[in-house]
Amino acid sequence: MGKIPFGGRYHRLPKTLEDDYQIGCDQKSVVGSGYNGAVRLGTSKGRKSFKVAVKAFALTNLAADEQTQLTSEVEILLCMDHPHIVRLYDVYETEDSLSLVMECMEGGQLLDRVIELKRFSEHNAAVSLRQMLLGLNYIHSHGIVHRDLKLENFLYDNKNSDHLKLIDFGFSKIWDPHVKMHVSCGTLSYTAPEVLKKSYTNKCDMWSLGVIAFILLAGYMPFSGSESVRTKDIRGGKLCIKPEKWETVSKQAMNFVLCLMRVNPDKRLSAQQALEHEWISTRHEQKGHAEVDLSVVTAFRSFAHASRFRRCCMEMMAWSLSNEERSQVREYFLELDQNHHGTISISELKTVLEDKFHIHDKEVQEISRTLDTNHDGEIHYSDFLAAMLSTRIRLHDDLLPSTFKRFDTDNSGYITSDNLKEVLGDAFEGEEVGKLVAEADQLQDGRISYVEFVAFVKGEKLGTAGTDFRAVGPPVGALRALNGSRH
Q: What is the pLDDT of residue 288?
């Protein structure tokens, strides 16, 4: 994913969680639980309405298997960048703890929605399953297997939304497709037969998704009884089919479920194939698309023409966007992602820009080069969001403090060359970090104050960016007052 997402989101001392977020301490602030403790509600000190969910892990006396599981979860979540996967904003490491600051999903579990509705209509089931498949195809196409798909691990982003996101990567694994996995994990009712045999591939996720599809359409679990009975039925693929529940379900939908719940994983649909299944694809075609319009192209062009450090700031700012802000443009991203791998390939972007908007090849190459920040031939979700900040997403003032603090790694109140090296390495897009600092250093003192940063991002000169530098006193004092920091 490149240097910005990692360097700007993984924080070590002297920076702490409390510098950037206010975490609730009472029982009302507990929004969930994990294997290592409660998940608590918090808010950003820079954006008061910006809610987060914080998972804190005590590192002292952590068993070896728990340490491995935690390390895997953090590594994988740092790489996740997709509209249908929960977002990890920040990680804070101290000597004895690790805190993960996650997107706050206020809409509740898919399980709760199933309990409320009893069963989904075919249309709603297909729409929901397509969202799950988009997230699943993204992780599978990037070498990750989830291993614990279930109703509880899909959440809605808010109460009035139907937008689902995959959570809980505690059992996930970066997987070599040439090596079978052997660790038995997950939840029995969703576990694939080959997992019980302790020799499996990422197709185990597809079986679990089949169980979810079964529940959405029929309103009950495909396996029941004691643990031994369920284990035997799972091994044999013996589904509990109640005719009165399935007589109103179409043959297409039933075929979709059965194609996912084949005992032989080699004959089971992959995520890509499941997205192309007639029952899923037909309903999506009927729903219509978010047509990529000229305003999206204008944003691409604006981003391509921006200076290196400005693009760097936009990339960092993309990780501070709220769910509401991302929702304004996420359908455009999904529309451009024609192969459903969860990124926009350079060829996909080229096709749209040349065929639909008749943009010359030279300009297409320049747009592609600036969007592909880590030069892997793919445009990731946050790259796209950064470009949309040029014109499509309003640049709110309250985005600026959190973005500045991602660069200010030592809480000094300034962005220095050393800070940028810590975040970016020695260079960004071939430009030495010292030259990046010079872009925004209007006072020419070798560092960027917060007020200089605001003026730079807004394209203004000091004294015209809403706050006069000399009127606020020392930059560090102004920033700490803004932060509400304890330092």
A: 64
pTM over 0.85: yes
Record the tokens describing residue 218, joined without a space. Answer: 């029929």
Structure confidence at residue 394 (pLDDT): 81
* Residues in the chain, overall count: 487
Task: Indicate the domain borders of the chain.
Answer: 3-103, 110-287, 294-388, 408-483
pLDDT of residue 37: 66
Q: Is the pLDDT of residue 293 over 50?
A: yes
Q: How many CB atoms lie within 10 A of CB 361?
A: 10
Q: How many Å separate Cα 222 from the centre of its chain?
A: 30
To which H or E segment does residue 164 belong? strand 164-166
DSSP 8-class letter at 36: T
Residue-wise pLDDT tens digits, 13-23: 989 999 999 99
pLDDT band at 284 (very low <50, low <70, confident <90, very high): confident
Q: Which of 19, 20, 81, 148 is catalytic?
A: 148
Looking at domain 3-103, its CATH architecture is 2-Layer Sandwich (3.30)
- 169 and 88 in contact (C-beta within 8 Å)? no
> What residues have CB less than 8 Å from 35, skipping those under 6 apart?
66, 69, 170
Q: Is 157 a catalytic residue?
A: no
CA distance 71 to 476: 34
Give the C-alpha separation, 299 to 389, whole Å: 8
* Complete DSSP assignment for 116-160: HHSS--HHHHHHHHHHHHHHHHHHHHTTEE-----GGGEEESSTT
Fold entry, domain 408-483: Recoverin; domain 1 (1.10.238)
Which tokens sit at 202? Answer: 């990422």
CATH code of domain 294-388: 1.10.238.10
172 by DSSP, 3-state: which? Answer: coil
Residue of 29, 58, 14 whose CA lies nearest to 486? 14
C-alpha dist (Å) from residue 367 to 144, 303, 311, 362, 429: 29, 8, 12, 9, 14
C-alpha span between 484 and 374 (Å, rounded)? 34
Q: What is the pLDDT of residue 478?
A: 39
pLDDT band at 69 (very low <50, low <70, confident <90, very high): confident
What integer pLDDT is reported at residue 395 of this predicted model?
79
For the residues 46-69, what does the mean pLDDT come to?
Answer: 86
How many other CB atoms are found less than 10 A from the CB of residue 156?
20
Tokens of 371: 């969007």
Classify domain 110-287 by CATH architecture: Orthogonal Bundle (1.10)
Closest listed residue to residue 84, CA positions, set 417, 421, 326: 326
Amino acid identity, residue 178?
Answer: H
- Angular region, 219: left φ>0, alpha ψ -120 to 50, beta rest: left
